[in-house]
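re the bet — no i am not wrong, look at it urself. input seq straight from the record:
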Amino acid sequence: MVAGVSVVTPHGGAGFRLRTEGHFWPAQLEDGLEALRLIGEEVAKRPIGVLGFSAGGHLASVLATHHPHLLAFHILIYGSTDVETPAWDPWLTRLGYPGIDFNTVKAVNAQTPPLFAAVSTEDEIASYGRACLRAQEENTRPYVDACRRCRVPVEVVLAKMGSHGHGMVDLWTKPCEAWLRAHHWAPKKRKRSK
């Protein structure tokens, strides 16, 4: 898995250029759209989804809200969806971040594909409900709430998993796998032979 966002298909994933390497927005969006185009040609009519962690979650949510016709689902793991938060570190366009036009909390609509979101109760940036953060400074809850208001199917895992940037843990990976299988976006689990 590439840090950031990967396009999930039965054949693997594709990474994107990073702002920290001098690639300013919209390079990441261009990469995401190109990956979806290439993968779409390869897998024909199979469902395609995106998975993003942190800022990669933002890119995944931009693809889901601005280009929903390209996706069957999106998965955000401690995703940053509001470019104006946290208040102590807002995303600045002059530093290569997306502008407020790409605040995806405000872009959710009825065409947004189904969402699986996971966030740790210990996450200081994308928290779902830490008491020390004001509601407008959270990323996951407002996005989930916007999806629910628009009747977008949502599955959320909220658990103690570590601070922002935590690793892949069974607390969210197993429910995510079950969610993908339940919607027929992943193959059924094969029974192991004895």
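see?? The two ends are 31 Å apart (CA to CA). told u. also The mean pLDDT is 81. so pay up
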